[in-house]
Structure formats: structure tokens, C-alpha cells
From TrEMBL:
GO molecular function, a single term: uroporphyrinogen decarboxylase activity
Domain Uroporphyrinogen decarboxylase (URO-D) intervals: 8-112
GO cellular component: cytosol
Alphabetical list of SUPFAM superfamilies matching this protein: UROD/MetE-like (SSF51726)
Any single biological process term in GO: heme biosynthetic process
PANTHER family named in the record: METHYLTETRAHYDROFOLATE:HOMOCYSTEINE METHYLTRANSFERASE RELATED (PTHR21091), UROPORPHYRINOGEN DECARBOXYLASE (PTHR21091:SF169)
Protein name (record): Unannotated protein
Length: 123
């Protein structure tokens, strides 16, 4: 990890089912800890301390009705707001049967909400 850091390469450590290992992951030398969908980001933040996180929408929610998907996306954003930095992502990979339109809606919503949060932070 230290060699990558010297090159300026961002280091994100992610593992599936690693909720109980999050505090150790934060000591790995990574710049960001990726969190799968099983641990809410605000809970993850209490486990790892003042550390940026990535994640963590459950990929199965991409099959849910739009209103459910949007609320779940907003919930991840709210919970990620407890960390000193948050990179929105699915809590694991995209399932092969996922409708690209669902992913587009998630991306659009994250951008919309991000603009609102950025505007509020400047006020």
C-alpha cells in the first residue's frame, strides 16, 4: 500500500462481509475503506473513526420500484454524511440482470443530492 501512496494512487480497501474487520481495515494504509451493503455507513463510521468511506447501496435494490430505490439511495447519502468523506457506490458489484436505467437513476440522484449538499455547505 505504501508504494501506491507514494505514486499518488488513491487506495481503497474493500471486502465483502468485513463489517467486523472495519477498524482493522482503517489501519491498512488505505485512503478510503469500502463498506458492503450489510453495514450502514453511519455504523461503519463509528467502527473506523474519522475516516473516508465508500459504498454502499445494496445492489439488489436496483430491482426495486423507483421510489424505494430513490429512498435507499438518499439513506446511503445521509448515513455517509457522518464520515469525513464519502464516495457513493454500490455495496458490491452490479448484478448482471440490472437494468441500466436503474443505475442511471441512482447516478442522477446522487449528483442532484450532491449539488444540494454542496450548496448548503457553502451557505
Amino acid at each position: 500500500m505504501s508504494e501506491l501512496g507514494a505514486l499518488g494512487v488513491p487506495r481503497i480497501l474493500f471486502g465483502v462481509g468485513t463489517g467486523e474487520l472495519l477498524s482493522l481495515m482503517a489501519t491498512s494504509g488505505a485512503d478510503v475503506v469500502g463498506v458492503d451493503w450489510r453495514v450502514p455507513l453511519d455504523v461503519a463510521t463509528t467502527r473506523i473513526g474519522n475516516f473516508p468511506v465508500q459504498g454502499n447501496l445494496d445492489p439488489a435494490l436496483c430491482f426495486a420500484p423507483t421510489d424505494v430505490l430513490e429512498e435507499a439511495t438518499r439513506d446511503v447519502l445521509r448515513r455517509g454524511g457522518h464520515a469525513p468523506g464519502h464516495i457513493f457506490n454500490l455495496g458490491h458489484g452490479v448484478l448482471p440482470e440490472t437494468d441500466p436505467d436503474s443505475l442511471k437513476r441512482v447516478v442522477d440522484l446522487v449528483h442532484e443530492e450532491g449539488q444540494i449538499l454542496a450548496k448548503a455547505a457553502r451557505s
